[in-house]
Amino acid sequence: QRQLVESGGGLVQPGGSLTLSCKASGTIARYDAVSWHRQAPGKQRELVAVILRDGNPEHSLAVKGRFAMSKDNARDTVYLQMNSLKPEDSAVYYCRAERETASSRYDYWGPGTQVTVSS
Q: What whole-number distance in Å separates Cα of residue 26 and Cα of residue 33?
C-alpha cells in the first residue's frame, strides 16, 4: 500500500496555474516533515517546498512568490498551488513524508505526477 499518492499534474501553458495534491494513507499530522520535490530529465531531484510538523511552509528560491504549499490535517493531504508557471518548472513532482522516533526512521515518497509547461 502506497503511503503517499500525488495527483493534479498535467499540461499547462506558460503563465498558467496548477494545483497538486498529495494524499497520505495515514495521519499526515504525525509526520515531522512533508515536502514537495521535483526532477526534470537529466537533472537532480530538488526540494521545492517543505512544511515541518507545526511550522509554516518554506519554499525554494526558484519558486518563491509563485508556488504555495499548504497542509490540511483533516484531509491528510498537502497541496502545492503553482502559479505563473514557466517551461523550466516542467518536471515530475514528488511528495515526501518523514518521521523519526526513538527507534525508527520513516521516509516515504509518492510515485510522482508529471507537470509539463509548454505552449
A: 14
